Amino acid sequence: MKQNETNPDSLSSHALMPMLPLRDVVVYPHMVIPLFVGREKSIHALDLAMQSNKRIVLVAQKNAEVDDPQTQDVYMIGTLANILQLLRLPDGTVKVLVEGSQRVGIHRFTETQDCFIAEVSLLEPALDQGETQEIQALVRSLLNTFDQYVKLNKKIPSEVLTSVSGIDDPSRLADTIAAHMALRLDEKQKVLEMQDLRERLEHLLTLVEGEIDILQVEKRIRGRVKQQMEKSQREYYLNEQMKAIQKELGDLEDAPNEIEELTQRIEKAGMPKDAKAKARAELNKLKMMSPMSAEATVVRNYIDWLVGVPWKKRSKIHQDLALAESILEEDHYGLEKVKERILEYLAVQQRARKLKGPILCLVGPPGVGKTSLGRSIARTTNRKFVRMSLGGVRDEAEIRGHRRTYIGSMPGKIVQNLVKVGVRNPLFLFDEIDKMSMDFRGDPSSALLEVLDPEQNNTFNDHYLEVDFDLSDIMFVATANSLNIPPPLLDRMEVIRIPGYTEDEKLNIAIRYLVAKQLASNGLRPEELEITAEALLDIIRFYTREAGVRNLEREIAKICRKVVKEITLKPVEGKIVVVSEMVEKYLGVRRFRYGLAEEQDQVGQVTGLAWTEVGGELLSVEAALVPGKGKLIHTGQLGEVMQESIHAAMTVVRSRAKALGIDPEFYQKYDLHIHVPEGATPKDGPSAGIAMCTALVSALTQIPVRSSVAMTGEITLRGEVLPIGGLKEKLLAAHRGSIATVLIPEDNRKDLVEIPENILEKLDIRVVRWIDQVLEIALQSLPVVQSGGEADLAEGTAAKTGNTLEGVRAH
Fold first, then answer.
1. Catalytic: 781?
2. Catalytic residue flag (residue 730)
3. How far is CA 520 from its chain centroid?
4. Residue in 687, 698, 707, 728 annotated catalytic
5. Which of 579, 578, 597, 588 is nearest to 542 (CA)?
6. Which of 41, 188, 683, 730 is catalytic?
7. What are the DSSP calls for 317-383, one per residue?
8. pLDDT by residue (tens digit) across 596-646?
9. What pLDDT shows up at residue 494?
10. Looking at the whole model, is its pTM more than 0.70?
11. Where are the alpha helices (DSSP H) in 602-724?
12. For residue 20, what are the CA distances in angstroms to 33, 188, 806?
């Protein structure tokens, strides 16, 4: 080795040199840098270099964490450096000052026990004279860009610019600039490995520009942060200054500070002992906190909510029964049961000092006035009115609130609304309680169990407040379109059904309330427009089909708008009177045929009666007989219960085939198809049983069914007719549909007392117990029976008929 290194100024093509692996640093030619060496092999390499010509190869490690690097752990291009100074430190490490001289390529390693020996050769390409002008341009651009970089980067002293500007050699200039830049190790090594000068300058120019972009972004971010901090500090300083000035002027003597104000509010809130203790504890925590901290804001908000709850303030309940009755009558037409229940509550309230508020659930179709009835009850009892819509509520926290551990947590809607109204005994309306649902965030209907239970709601605990609040003074009213409510929740409420309005009730409501309301809403005076009762009746019959009055109100509003337009465009003298003949002019062609059951008697077609959430409806049931092998087909999106009714009706027909004059083997020769029209609408329930049976008998005997007859009732295998629900809505639908005769089960006779007298007068209601009675009334004629059958049928019907409306009234 010494033979190869005798001349210090030259290096043979493949010289053997000691090698020093470096961590996290790349040494460039002409770069002077101190190194601290602690690894034994590295110290031996330095010793070997010092013994010869003080030259050593410096190579960067690929991974700085490798303590004992092997040949694959170092890069294959490094720098030949001269050792300028070597100093051994007391801890055994060596401080060495080196100066890079030239790039070298490593061909192979020879590893000894003491150190690495590398076979290297110089890498210094000759400069192409044709590129001199381009190199000069690149050097100038690089100097200008580096100048910007130094001005932005405060870590590099400005003197570096002076020293860099004095370098004439482009290669040395590039290496010096690369040495001063804060680049990753692999980027620095890449610059070292670039032998082509032009390529190295271009790459370095790109790196400097990229670093400038990053530094400019950092500068903007620092500027924004500094501006925000200065603004906060300025506001704090000015606030403190303002307090000091006000104190000097004596303004703060009368106005207490925030802590004193909260203390006074806690004392005046009328809290129970546990709530007051909680509030005081939170206030003490607030005193110890910095006013600007985020936690102080959380505690301050909590105390604000706690003192905002109406712990003792309440409305004075009116107990004047006569006044209450007059208010209810003024606001609503009909609804006798609900009005009676409210008056009962007020009567008991007069006698009992403390009465737990009733929890009423008003169930009825849309548009019958459930929500507006809640407002009337509040006005009657002089309670403040709070409405909370539960439609689509899926989160339990809507009822009970969020715990304070969550950012932005708040109390539940019940506490929020109590704070809003400011009294502890309002009327709380839970609107659309049947529209609640549940998901992974909890079940709000379960959270309502505590709220609506009079035995539990005196200790209602909101998750946010964490103290008990007494809800027993609140009068709760819930509304729903159906009883699709969880049973435990339904059990806590007193259900009051609000059926659909009759035609007469709708007419009265329109005359008393709706017309006047829409005249006012559309800017009309009573002397400008009048809608006659006949015209309103036509609107009810031919333009709306609903249990409530919402669509009726819309149609009246439509007439008012068109009249306003007429008056505006062409003023008229006197009052515009809308009579029956003018309705079509304002509302267009009639949308519905008034009730209109089938006009002609049809074979296999029966008019049934159905209950829906929007009131009663006429339901056609069709049966058809086709040659086949006894297949029973049912269509019309029928539910399981209705499908079972079809099978039960089929069994009744087969068991009575001989008495009905039907071939007993019909089910082997024909297919029977039962269809309920409006196939897109799901249908279910057992109350169409007798209609199914009648349709089957009509199809099999080819005897038409009277179109003026409608029926409802469940059928048993013995042919008995069982009771059904929703009788009032079904009879109203029959009345709307111009049905003359309605067949109802015998056991529903008792429900007729709830039917308005005018409906009973206009319908021929007949109560039946057996299917034979149904067939006798519904079919145009009795079937022609086989031998002996007619006597049986006649005897059965004679024994079982005679229950007409006159019989009902006699009872």
1. no
2. yes
3. 37
4. 687
5. 588
6. 730
7. PP--HHHHHHHHHHH-SS-HHHHHHHHHHHHHHHH-SS-PPPEEEEE--TTSSHHHHHHHHHHHHTP
8. 566 788 899 999 998 876 667 888 899 999 988 888 899 988 889 999 999
9. 84
10. no
11. 640-655, 666-669, 689-701
12. 14, 18, 120
